[in-house]
Specification:
The chain is globular. It has helices spanning about 15-25, 40-45, 55-60, 80-85, 100-115, 130-140, 165-170, 175-190, 300-315, 325-345; strands at about 5-10, 30-35, 50-55, 70, 90-95, 120, 145-155, 195-205, 235-240, 245-250, 260-265, 270-275, 280-285, 285-290, 350. The strands form 2 sheets. The protein has a 9-stranded mixed beta sheet with strand order 14-13-12-11-7-10-9-8-15, with helices on one face. Strands 3-2-1-4-5-6 form a 6-stranded parallel beta sheet, sandwiched between helices. It is an alpha/beta fold.
Length: about 350
C-alpha cells in the first residue's frame, strides 16, 4: 500500500514533536515542509527526508497528493491556514489554540462542515496514556459526579519571548500558551460540561524578568528581551451549567519557589490527580484509600503523548477511530479563553449562556 503523504506547515520547535511522531508511523510519508524561513524549512526537510520545501503554504496546499497537514505556525495564522487547508481537501491537525478569537473558531468549524474533512485540535494531553487511564475510571463512575476541578501551570521564570511574547502573533501569554492545556484536560475529564460564566484576573506586573541571572529557561529563536506585550499571570473561576466549577492559575513568571503543574478533580465518590503524578482517591470499608496506578510514566509523557496524538489523527482520517479533540471542542475552549481575557479586562464576570 502507498503511504499517506503528510506535510507540516511551520518548522519551529513544536513541529519537531509532530515530525518525530509522523516519522515513527509506518503508514506515513513526510512529504513537504513549509516555513517562512526557507533555510529552516530546508534543514528540517533534509532531516526528515521530505522531498518538497515551501515558504508559501498555499503552494503546498495546491499539491493534490498531500493527504493531511499539521499546522504548527504562530497562533495568528491558525484559522487562516486551517480554513485554506480544509477547503483544499486536506485533513488538519492544528496545534492549540485553535485560533485567537471565537469568531475565527466558528469560521474554522464552518470550513470543517462544508469540506467534510477532519480537523483535530492539538490538545495533546487528552492523548496521554495517563489521561486515558483516568478517563476509564471516571467513565466507570469511580469518581461519581465531578463537581470541582483545580489546575495550575506555573512557571517561576519562563517567558519564551519572541512570538510567544508578542500579543499580535500569540493572542496572549501563559493563558493561551500553557493554560489552555490544563483548562482543556480538566474540562475533558469533567465530561465537557457547558460553560455558564467566567470570572478572571490577569496580571502584567513582572515583565519577562530578563534581568535574572544564573537560571536558564527556554527561549524562542527570535527572543528579544526588549519585547513583551503579554500577561505574566492569569487566574480564573469557570462555572458550568451543571453546577461544577474549575479554578485555574497560570504564569510565565511568578515569585514562586519552583515551577508547578497540577491537575486535580473531585467527585462525590472519589477524587483524582493527573499531575504532578497520577493518583486516584477513593473509599473502601469506611477507609480513605490513595491508589497509585502502576504505569510507565507517573507524570505527562511528552513525546509518547505526541505519538499517540499523531497516530490517533491518522487513524481518524482513515475512519478507524473518532478524534478525541474535534473542532467543536476547539471552539468551546476558545470561548473560555476569550472570556477569561474579557473578564479581566472589564473587571466583571462574563456570562456565556
Amino acid at each position: 500500500m502507498s503511504k499517506l503523504k503528510v506535510a507540516v506547515i511551520g518548522a519551529g520547535s513544536i513541529s519537531d514533536c509532530h515530525l518525530q511522531a509522523y516519522a515513527s508511523n509506518p503508514e506515513v510519508e513526510i512529504y513537504a515542509i513549509c516555513d517562512l524561513n526557507e533555510a529552516r524549512a530546508t534543514e528540517v526537510a533534509k532531516q526528515y527526508d521530505a522531498p518538497h520545501v515551501f515558504t508559501d503554504y498555499k503552494e503546498l496546499l495546491a499539491l493534490p497528493e498531500i493527504h493531511s497537514v499539521s499546522i504548527c505556525t504562530w497562533n495568528d495564522s491558525h484559522a487562516e491556514i486551517s480554513i485554506a487547508a480544509l477547503d483544499a481537501g486536506k485533513n488538519v491537525l492544528c496545534e492549540k489554540p485553535l485560533c485567537q478569537t471565537v469568531e475565527d473558531a466558528l469560521e474554522v468549524e464552518k470550513a470543517v462542515h462544508r469540506s467534510g474533512k477532519l480537523l483535530q485540535v492539538g490538545f495533546v494531553r487528552r492523548y496521554s496514556n495517563n489521561a486515558q487511564i483516568l478517563k476509564k475510571f471516571i467513565d466507570a463512575g469511580e469518581l461519581g459526579e465531578i463537581y470541582y476541578a483545580k489546575a495550575s501551570s506555573l512557571r517561576r521564570l519562563g517567558n519564551p519571548g519572541g512570538w510567544f511574547s508578542d500579543i499580535n502573533r500569540s493572542g496572549g501569554g501563559p493563558l493561551i500558551d500553557i493554560g489552555v492545556h490544563v483548562i482543556d484536560i480538566c474540562w475533558y475529564l469533567m465530561g465537557r460540561p457547558k460553560v455558564k460564566s467566567v470570572s478572571a484576573n490577569v496580571s502584567n506586573r513582572l515583565g519577562n524578568r530578563a534581568n535574572i541571572k544564573n537560571l536558564s529557561f527556554y527561549k524562542a529563536a527570535d527572543y528579544d528581551a526588549e519585547q513583551n506585550t503579554v500577561e505574566d499571570m492569569a487566574n480564573a473561576l469557570i462555572r458550568f451549567e451543571n453546577g461544577a466549577s474549575l479554578l485555574v492559575d497560570v504564569s510565565f513568571t511568578l515569585h514562586a519557589k519552583a515551577d508547578e503543574t497540577s491537575v486535580k478533580l473531585y467527585g462525590d465518590k472519589g477524587g483524582a490527580e493527573l499531575e504532578p503524578e497520577i493518583s486516584i482517591i477513593g473509599e473502601k470499608f469506611n477507609t480513605i484509600l490513595n491508589m497509585t496506578p502502576q504505569v510507565d510514566f507517573k507524570s505527562f509523557d511528552f513525546m509518547g503523548s505526541f505519538r499517540n496524538e499523531i497516530n490517533h489523527f491518522i487513524d481518524s482520517t482513515q475512519g478507524r477511530k473518532e478524534t478525541l479533540s474535534p473542532v467543536e471542542d476547539g471552539v468551546e475552549v476558545m470561548k473560555m479563553l476569550c472570556a477569561i481575557y474579557e473578564s479581566a479586562r472589564e473587571g466583571r464576570e462574563i456570562s456565556l449562556l
